[in-house]
Amino acid sequence: MSNLLTAFLKARWRFKHWNPEKIRKFQIHQARKIIQYAVTNSKFYHSYYNNKNLNDVFQLPLIDKQIMMKEFTNFNTAGLTREECLNFCLKTEETRDFSQKYKNYIIGMSTGTSGNRGIEMVTKKEAGIMQTTFIARFPIPLRGRFHLAFILRVFSPGFNVNVGKFKMSYVSPMDTLENIINELNQLQPTALSAPPSMLKILAEAKQDNKLQITPNLVVSYAEVLSPDTEQFLEKIFETKILEVYKATEGMLAQSCKAGRLHINEDISIVEIVDENDDHVPPGTPGHVIVTDLVKRTTPIIRYRLNDIVTIDPDPAPCPCGSQFRVIKQIQGRADDMFLGKRADTKQSQFIFGDYIRRAIVSTSDHIREYRAIQENPQKIIIDLELIPEFQTPEEQSIFNNELPNKISQLFKKHKCETPDVEINFKAITHDFSLKLRRIIRNFDETAYF
C-alpha cells in the first residue's frame, strides 16, 4: 500500500470517527514532535524558545507573518535564504511555470489582503499529506471523472493535485476575462474553484450565456464569502457553494458533504483567542492562532493570523458524522472591522464588517458591487456600483436618504458616536492579484485611542 493511499485512508478515518478527546491527544502529541524538531533544526526557534517549557504547547510565545518573513533565513529548516526563495518565487510568477522545484523543495508565494508577501515551502511528502487530506474530505462523486478548474492568483502546494480520476487545471486570473471564459468553456470542468469575487464575475458571464459550463461543485476560497454573494452564486450555478479555508500557514478547514466548514483538526491546531490571547468559547468571535502539524520545513507554531473567526457553538453532531469543529463564520481580517468611539468611555469599540455589509445590501437589491472605507472614527466613505438599468437619480436618492441613517443607528446600537457617511456612485474594479476587501479600515487603533 502506497504512503499516499495510507494517508488518504487515515484522513478519512479520522474525520469520520475521532471524538474531541482523541483529537486533542493527537494534536498535543504531534505538536510536541514539531516543536522539538523546530528547536533542533531552526536557528530561530532554538533562540526563540530558549528557557521555555516545550511541553506546554499552548503557552509558547506567538509568532506572526512579520516575524516569519523577517527571520525566514533562520526560520526554515532547509538552510535556504529568504532572498533565494523570493527570487525563485518571483521567477515562477513571471513564467507561470509552477512545475519547477527549488533544491527539491516546492516553494510558492502568497499575497494576503494586506499585499504582504509570504513564502510557503514544503517537501514532496508534506505536500502529499496536504493534498490527500484535501481529496479525502472533498465531496467527490464516486463515479465518473472529477475535473476541478481552480483560479489562483499565486501558487500553493495544496492546490496542485492530479491523482487518479481527480484532476485539477490551473487558470490564471491575470489573463483577460474573455480568455478565462474561453479556457473554462474548453476545459468543461465538473467543479470550479475561485475567490468569491471572481466567482461572481463568472456567474454574471454565465447569466449572459458567455460562460457555458455546468459544474456540479463550486468552491470558494481566499476571501470572505458574504451571504449575498453566496446566494447569488447558488442561484446562477444551481449548486451548493462549498468553502476552503486555506492560508500559507496551513490547510485549515474545508466544507463537508453537508456544506459545513470543518477544521482539519488532524493537520492543524486552531485556537480562537481574544485581544489578550485568552481562549474564547465557541460562538464568540476571536483571532486565529494556528499550529501546523505537518510542515517541518517551515514550522508554523502558534502563528497568529489577522483573521476573525467564530466556532459554531451547536453541540449537535454534523449531519456528515464528523466531530471535527465547525467554523460558523469567517468575519474577515481584524482591520476589516470598523472602530467606533464609545460615547460613554471614549474608548474604541469593534463593529464587525458583516453589520456594515448588511446595512448596505439591505438598502436595495440593485447593487452590483460596493466598498466601505473607514478613514477615521468620524468618517466613512461608501462606494457603490449599481446595476446598469438602476443607475438613476431615483435609485441613488434611496441610498442617500437611507444608508447614512442605517450606519448611524448601527453605531448607536454599539453605544458609539455616529460618523459622517459619504456616498459615491462609481464603477468599482478589482485587482485580482490581491484579495478582495469590501470592508476596509484605513487607520490603526493606536492613532485615535
Automatic annotation (TrEMBL):
Pfam families reported for this sequence:
AMP-binding
The record's annotation in Gene3D superfamilies points to:
N-terminal domain of ligase-like
- Residues covered by the AMP-dependent synthetase/ligase domain: 172-290
Return the InterPro entries for the record: AMP-dep_synth/lig_dom, ANL_N_sf, CapK_Type1_Caps_Biosynth, CHP02304_F390_synth-rel
Extract the NCBIfam families matched here: aden_form_hyp
What is this protein's record name?
A: F390 synthetase-related protein
Q: What is the originating organism of this protein?
A: Promethearchaeum syntrophicum
